[in-house]
Amino acid sequence: MDPIYLDHAATTPIDPEVLQVMMETYQTVVGNPSSIHSFGRQARKIVDDSRHTIAKYIGARSREIVFTGGGTEGDNLAILGTAFANKHKGKHIITSKVEHHGVLKTCAYLESQGFDVDYLDVDRTGRISVEDLKQKLRDDTILVTIMFANNEVGTIQPIREIAHLLANHQAYFHTDVVQAFGTVDMDVKDTPIDMLSMAGHKIGGPKGIGFLFVRDGVRLQAFTHGGDQERKRRAGTENVPEIAGLARAVEKVGEHLHERIQSSLKARQVMLETLDDEHVDYQINGNPEHFLPQVVNLYFPGTQVETLLTKLDLSGVAVSSGSACTAGSIEPSHVLTAMFGQGAPETKSSIRISFGDAMQEDRLREAGKIIATSVRELVSLGKVGN
Amino acid sequence: MKKTPSQTRVVIGMSGGVDSTVAALLLKQQGYDVVGIFMKNWDDTDENGVCTATEDYEDVVRVSNQIGIPYYAVNFEKQYWERVFTYFLNEYKLGRTPNPDVMCNKEIKFKAFLDHAMALGADYVATGHYARVDERDGKVAMIRAVDENKDQTYFLNQLSQEQISKVMFPLGDLEKPEVREIAREHHLATAEKKDSTGICFIGERNFKQFLSTYLPANRGEIRTIDGELKGYHDGLMYYTNGQRQGLGIGGPGGPWFVCGKDLKQNILYVAPGADHPALYSQGLLADQVNWISGAPKDTVFHCTAKFRYRQKDRPVTVHLLDDGSLEIVFDELEWAVTPGQSVVLYDDDVCLGGGTISTILNQGTDAALDFTDSASL
Description:
The structure holds two protein chains of two kinds. Chain A is of the alpha/beta class. Chain A has helices at about 15-30, 40-60, 70-85, 100-110, 130-135, 160-165, 230, 240-275, 305-315, 335-340, 360-385; strands spanning about 5, 65-70, 90-95, 115-120, 140-145, 170-175, 195-200, 210-215, 285, 295-300, 315-320, 325, 330, 350-355. Chain A has a seven-stranded mixed β-sheet with strand order 2-8-7-6-5-3-4, sandwiched between helices. In chain A, strands 9-10-14 form a three-stranded antiparallel β-sheet. In chain A, strands 1-11 form a two-stranded parallel sheet. The two termini of chain A are about 35 Å apart. Helices cover about 20% and strands about 30% of the residues of chain B. In chain B, the strands form three sheets. A six-stranded antiparallel β-barrel of chain B has the order 12-15-14-13-16-17. In chain B, strands 3-2-1-4-7 form a five-stranded parallel β-sheet, sandwiched between helices. In chain B, helix 1 (about 20-30) runs parallel beside helix 2 (about 55-65), helix 1 (about 20-30) packs across helix 6 and helix 3 packs antiparallel against helix 4. The chains are: A alpha/beta, B alpha/beta.
């Protein structure tokens, strides 16, 4: 059987139109956007047009878009950049326990540099409490960074409320939208978000490229030093073909947002129905109301995640869970740990299934049946073993 | 109906060393459905924050891609701690010198890992051990490796019939230099990798320092077998029978060798000269006895035995005692037999099984030495 890819939250296959735009750019654009000759101007136009496309889609100004090397770099630039540029105003930062490591480890680094970081708890659905945030907010808070939606369980945070709460506070508000971007309407015009980081490869775009929206007026310090590209916020020659591809990917999200949501919801429904039909015992880890349609995190009592993932892969179903340590073994997810507590069974027996565009229904059912069979086998082995 | 190789799933434990690499390659060449798995048994982060298993796992990744097999990792830290390391520490507390590799094979590689592999639909598990399995008299027998110098049946003496019936040892018919040569021929990334030495969780570290972080060390006296005070030891657990280095004693009559421990009085006994009778014994008692292909029919029989890894076989007479333990009498006096180590029995090329040495019998030719504690020599 051909393997079935159900790990779109990790990365997505490239969209053929995006690939085409990139191929054309590679083939036809020679210059460096900083060069003053015709070749340079040709490249510069592509970068400017791409920036405009992206800005327009999220309701920003072109100059508020900084191209980055992806989501993690955007998170780093936003957090380190504002922390160091604003430390005279305070050294307190608030984030949550379920952020991506691009945020969490950057905050941990700042703690080592003398900053004071509060990590908000989440409830069992993975949501923070705005009330809790309000209480943790201090006069010397300079940054609040809360992800738009979680990459492991899909829970969407109360971003609008947080943004409005912070509108009258000195603290900047950064949100990581890497996972949410493809299926959530993004608009920074109506929502007072100060910074937003995004990665291209989660929406059919190229890997190694993304952008950071930085609202005009935000004091941000650069961390790559060199040329004056990206208005001195990110030195280095622009990756023109990937920037062109990123813009096309963003544009396509804009054109097809509704269909994307519907197709992910459909895929999710087919998967859950198949598991129901197979009478497999499972629970959904996440929020029943505020969730990304393309991510579903399932707890299968009585299974062991490492065995389940391996078994599924050997049966041709590619899903994931938490993150692997450098020696390959799977560590309990910090997200599930924050939701259910240290050592809770959900942290040991859950997998993430994530969907892409236009998934074939029969293949989804096939995958669902394989998951059901594998779970049943492991549960019965576990019962014998104990 | 017998499965063809391509229908036969073999899950191989890969350590990132040359042996398991070549074992995986050979299985793949034979057409099996090979799955490589790296076991992470010990949580270890060095002073630079680097997990020491990382490099080995990276090698597993590289060679698996070279060979063309899927690879995964599995974490047995908890099982290893509970079933191997705890045993290891307890043995040291009893003044014995345990063999954690024997326990690791019994409890982890051929139990936890075997269970994991079976859950993944394996028909067999394989490892890069130098040993062979074969059918003899309607049972599965463990046979010595062709490479006598590398033969690892000593460490596999605690495996059961059920365990070895699901095991493949692809290297059993090869000499170690051939294994290296195969790795080189196929340009495998681990071809020139140094063989690991020592106990896996201790690695290159200082053994004494490692042990002292887990067990309290009580300084005590070093006495000769005649009772003369020769010096002081750092803790009985740091010493093993026949040991000469690291005693810190000199003087006339030496060199001095460890020949016994008195756990109650915390005394380390030494004897002068390697040939001193106190270093020799006539027999031993062993418990935790395992018979790989079933217990022998006779309660007294003659066979050969090893008391430590890589030792030449010695002729012995085995007496099966009523409680399942063994009394083993040596044909000739044996030097520095050590409690806690395995005694492994062989009938020609067949490894019959083995046990853990609990007591040394008739130490010294005049049998005058009497260290009555269980752990004493």
